[in-house]
Design a protein that fits this description.
globular; about 240 residues; alpha/beta; Rossmann fold
Amino acid sequence: MEGFTRHFILPLARRRGWTSFCEIGASTGLATDEILRLPITSYTIIDPGFDADLARKYAGDARVIVKKANSLDVLPTIDGTYDCILIDGDHNWFTVFNELRVIRERGLLNHAGMIFFHDVDWPFGRRDMYYQPDTIPQEYRHEYERKGLIRGQSQLADVGGANAKDCNAVHEGGPRNGVLTAIEDFQSTHPSEYSFCRVRLEPGLGILQYRQQTFSKKVAFLLLRIKTWIYSCYSLVLRLKGR
């Protein structure tokens, strides 16, 4: 996430003067550290703390509030709004769709703000992954195994593959499966409210904002779309060259 943070989130934050952030799924805080260099006023982290003791790490920064819990337990309790929300937590349809539902219902995103999503491309754009399978209702949880992923192959790898330590859905694609599918399904339930674009570079960055913005902000979002296209094309060229 930190690469996307440097190239997209930080420039937008400076240009728009964002001061309040919420990060869902901070892991060890690498992207967090980048953003905290900005002159912001508040930063809320929601993370179950599997990878690091974030409360201890940021204990000396009065701007930072760490909520050690799952996002769907915390978001319904939050008051106030944010200029920017980063979503990089549990990479499955149920979690992401309901994160967006609660954000909308509680008005957690400022109307001039944006939501950024990590992992909207392969491997988790169209495939669920569960950090805590038991927290996902059975009717929304796909069959899963701790086996690796191979690009272009729906079934899990018997040997090797990416993310083999995680609980991955045994098949890719289909209804209610994956991060990108969750975003699309959410947007389809509110078709006139949001604009969405993404950087098509593994593992992918998604960007969501309200449509009802000023003309200058609409132009800025159009320029962002152009930048994501250029960045994606450049990255594809580098990948084809084997860099």
